[in-house]
Amino acid sequence: MELVSPGIGLIFWMTLAFLAVLFILGKYAWKPIMKALKEREMSISDALNAAELAKEEMKMLQFSNEKLMKEARNERDILLAETRKIKDSILEEARLKANEEANRIINSAKESIHFEKMAAMTELKNQLADLSLEIAKKILQKELSDPQKQETYVKELLADVKFN
Amino acid sequence: MHGRRNLVKYLFIAFFFLSYQLVFPKVQEGTNLIPTDTANEKQRENKTAGSSKFDAGKMILEHVTDTHDWHIFTLGTTNITIPLPVIFIYDGQIYSFWSSKFHNSSHAYKGFSIAEEGPGKGKIVKLKTDKMGGTNPAVYDFSITKTVFAILFSSIVLIIIFMTVANAYRSNKGQAPKGLQNAMEPLILFVRDDVAKSSIGEKRYEKYVPYLLTIFFFILFNNLIGIIPIFPGGANVTGNIAVTGVMAACTLIITTFSGNRHYWVDIINTPGVPWWLKIPVPLMPVVELLSVLTKPFVLMIRLFANMLAGHIVVLSFISIIFIFGAMAASLGYGVSIVSLLFMVFMDLLEVLIALIQAYVFTLLSALYFGLASAEPEHHKQ
Questions:
Q1: Which terminus of chain A is less hemmed in, N or C, by CB atoms within 10 Å?
Q2: Is the ipTM, as predicted for this complex, more than 0.85?
Q3: CB count, 10 Å around CB of A90?
Q4: Which residue ranges make up each domain of chain B?
């Protein structure tokens, strides 16, 4: 029976001690502990959120970087292609010009050759005329006495003279 | 409206305590009736005659019940005890002295003595005076007994530990917990998240957390200190019905005060039962009201019985050694090995039970708070 008969003194002290513990711990322990735990949980979740955000941002940045790179590459390709085209056109033009120049030079050369030839021919003819005159003079001086001979000789001479 | 509801709650709690007095009416009377000189004399004779004989039942009961001094060990025939203050009110007068004052040849001091037999055993009684006839007035004993001392000791330990932990939280703000703080944090979080939050609900759990944490650690610390067999420990605190009763009463009071309209309506007009169980004989309301009382009552009995049983079993294993030792010394030594193994096993089991019982008491309290404060839409599934 004594096991299940609570003494009034024990109930009194237990109530007193328990309420005191409840009050003291409630005020000076549980309150700051709960507050600190909550704050820490908040800060942890905040930090996690921030990390997630940073990750997202990084992804965005990486994406935009890639895009930029791609654009740059494209631009480079376009530039290269253009340059190649310009180079080709310049080369083509130069070739045409050179051709033209060459043709012109050749033509002028041909012309001058032609003129030179003509001049040479004229001179040759003149010289030839001079020479013929000389010869004729000589023949005339030498062979003019004998008309027969004269004639044959002229014929001979004339036969020798061949124009080329 | 609010005031009236509170008044109803006060009456309700008063009813609970009155009913408790009705259940154990003999307790108070026992204190007054038994103390007579002849009875004491007889007990003393018995004691001197059988002092050498080992009485396991008596030893165990002496260890698990409350005493006025703290028995450390017995050397030969002298009991080595720590005296504790005796404070009581008798006939409108306050008496206070050390319990060591009882250690004299007559085992009495100022006409008072500690009853050694009968239902009031261990209580302070007035020896028969030369006053004429009638029964003596009641002795209102407010002594710092073994259990009270253990409660005060564990309270101080609790306060010191959790003040230290709270300081650690303050000085260690936002950092990872360490040391004592790290040891206590899982338990605190367990009570907060798995007990309070899950049984009361996300919205209202916060105001109950301090109480739940306090009962959890109060029970846990007292249970654990009770397992330690040397001086500041070893007292059967949570295996004392007054201690568990006070905590159960606190739970009842908080449950009653956090009961919302829905809770009371459900008690008066229980939903989901046929009308003839409520009218004309209000069978269900009576059953429901009884269940409100039985819930904390069961809390009280469960903790009390579990811890008491644990202490009794451990003490029984110790007793076995002496019982066999009394038959033959060698038998005692032989049995002691087996007994020790069982004791170690029981003590380990007690550590587990200490945790489980603290958890169960806290969880059930939280469940009652949750039921009392639940919103209707949450309650009906």
A1: C
A2: no
A3: 10
A4: 2-52+75-144, 147-379
Closest to B19 (Cα-Cα) out of B257, B293, B304 = B293
Length of chain B: 381
Q: Are B247 and B215 in contact (CB under 8 A)?
A: yes
Write the pLDDT tens digit of every residue in B163-173. Answer: 999 998 888 77
CA distance to partner chain A, nearest, from residue B12 (Å): 19
pLDDT score, position B35: 39
Amino acid letter, B210: P
Q: Which of A1, A11, A14 to mutate to probe the B interface, most B CBs <10 Å?
A: A14
A→B contacts (Cβ < 8 Å), by residue, are 1-15, 17-18, 20-22, 24-26, 28-34, 36-37, 39-40, 43
Spans of chain B below 70 pLDDT: 1-5, 7-8, 11-53, 117-120, 128-136, 377-381
* Residue A55: count of CB within 10 angstroms of its CB: 10
d(CA B140, CA B243): 18
Residues in chain B within 8 Å Cβ distance of A34: 192, 206, 209-210
What is the model's pTM? Answer: 0.72
Q: Identify all chain B residues contacting A30, using CB atoms and an 8 Å cutoff.
A: 162, 209-210, 213-214
| Residues recorded for chain A | 164
Q: Phi first, then psi: what are they for B278, rounded to 5°?
A: -110, -35
Sequence ranges of the domains in chain A: 7-160
Nearest to B214 among A13, A14, A25 (CB): A25
Interface of B with A in 186-225 (CB under 8 A): 188-189, 192, 206, 209-211, 213-214, 217-218
Cβ B148–A13 below 8 Å, yes or no?
Answer: yes
Tell me, what amino acid is at A133? L
Which residues of chain A have a CB within 8 Å of the CB of B119?
A: 1-2, 5
B67 φ, ψ to 5°? -130, 165
Q: What is the rounded CA–CA span in Å between residue A153 and residue A157? A: 6
Stated as kind and residue range, the H or E segment containing A105 is: helix A31-143
Is B368 at the interface with chain A, CB within 8 A?
no
Q: How far apart are CA A36 and CA A47, in angstroms?
A: 16
Cα end-to-end span (Å), chain B: 30
CA B165 to CA B296: how far, in whole Å?
Answer: 31
B86 in A contact zone (CB under 8 Å): no
Structure tokens at B94: 């306050």
The angle at the Cα of B373, spanning B369 to B377, to the nearest 5 degrees, equals 130
- Interaxial angle between packed helices A8-25 and B241-258, expressed in degrees from 0 to 180 and rounded to the nearest 10: 50
pLDDT value, residue B247: 94
C-alpha distances in Å from residue A40, one per residue of B115, B170, B182, B186, B234? 57, 11, 14, 14, 38
